[in-house]
Amino acid sequence: MKTFSSIQPPHSFHSAPFFSSTPKRTQVPFSARVFFCHAKSGTNESLNIKLLPQTLLIAEKEEAKAVLTLFLKKQGLSNANATKTINRSDPFIDHLISKLHSKHKTWYLSGRELTTLEIRDVLISYLESLFEEHGHILVDVVENYPNPPVRDKSAEPIHPPNPSLVVESKKLKAVSEVSGVDPAAGNLRPHFVYLMQLGMEIDQIRTIIRKFPAFANYSLDGKIKPLVEFFLELGVPQEKILIIISKRPQLCGISLSENLKPTMEFFESLGVDKKQWAKVIYRFPALLTYSKQKITESIAFLLELGISEESIGKIITRCPNIISYSVEDNLRPTAMYFRSLGVDVGLLLFKCPQNFGLSIEANIKPVTEFFLERGYTSEEIGTMISRYGPLYTFSLTGNLMPKWDFFLTMGYPKSELVKFPQFFGYNLERRIKPRYARYARVKSYGVKLLLNQVLSLSTTKFEEVLKKKLKKLQNEENEETVK
User: Fold this and answer.
1) Contact 127/71 with Cβ under 8 angstroms?
2) Residue 328 CB-density burial (10 A; 0-12 exposed, 13-18 middle, 19+ buried)
3) Over the stretch 196-221, which tens digit does the pLDDT of each residue have?
4) CA nearest 12: which of 206, 251, 296?
5) Which of 214, 235, 234, 210 is closest to 224 using CA atoms?
6) Pfam families annotated for this entry (predicted)?
7) Which of 101, 164, 180, 393 is geometrically suited to a Cys-Cys bond with 115, CB 3.0 to 4.6 A?
8) Distance separating alpha carbons of residues 5 and 465, to the nearest angstrom
């Protein structure tokens, strides 16, 4: 294994889980202008829901409920209280779905179906931003959406000041002073002016400071500008650099020479493509903020699975999020589960590392149970996931169930899906149904095509195959007539 001794862990950065495990007890002032915004159907902010299949909307709502439940439990709520909140939050769930549609509007319009991980990434990011803004009153915000909760401050008990809260209060006050600066007054700090000249809005800067107060005191020439120029040299477009900084402002506090560049060199020694750094960093900015311990722990586990260093580099290039997954909470249990199905775990992780960020209980087991209930054996399910890695990343109710129901009308034996599980990766309305309708018209003449042939061939090739099959049958019939 390559050495990592030259990389010093960032002083104030460590492995960052999807959710903060320690709820913040300081009540952040309520800001209705950010949170209580209605997403209107048919506008630029969201899709007209009439464009989407009802089964897809139902599946997305169930996924949103699952994400919100897990998020609330991570903030300290009991399972019963989290469930109670979910049952009272239908308008908020609809709001989450509107956020999902707004984020990936072009994908929906093109018929692209989101995977479970893609849905979760959008919703988790949004919920974390809300928690940063509203703190421990988030439950009230969720239950009362879209109406701000009203609190009777006179009825609240008075407690002696907590030293840690006093410090937090001072920090919030300092943030308020900085983030409340009026650009028209001409007293913005140099790095704020610089970022605004690059295209960042003042409200974006305020949001960054609320999430990461240290950003307010960073030096333009010592921190911000060198990082921006370095990313430009890597080929990151200027507008994407602003997005990267907004997502992970901690990057600005890391030393280029002592931390960031050595970390990148280490990943390159494993095979991360130098030419792909712009895409890798934009896709997952947090990658370069993890500690030496976190990175080496993740790499060691991948090596333990028998994955070569070169392959690890390719995995990180395609899915840098893999470094964020906990070895003991995600990677190892998921590897054990897929191994129980007879899957080559190393190969599966190389093909589709996104599987290892899924919840075993909420995402993986339900898919296995779905196929077991339909008569497939564990071995056959293992073969399916081995042949088509993304199988488990699809929504059960939004993807697998409706496609299974249509498959039953196609006249193929169930074994055909073991041979060609990629069936579940094709769009039901845009690909599967039209292709089968065309095939069905010649099927009655005796033309037979495998499921693979019906779906995977290009339109031109598909038509050529049908014509050849029909011509062959006609020739055989003519020969029989002559005899």
Assistant:
1) yes
2) exposed
3) 999 999 889 988 988 888 898 899 99
4) 251
5) 214
6) mTERF
7) 393
8) 59
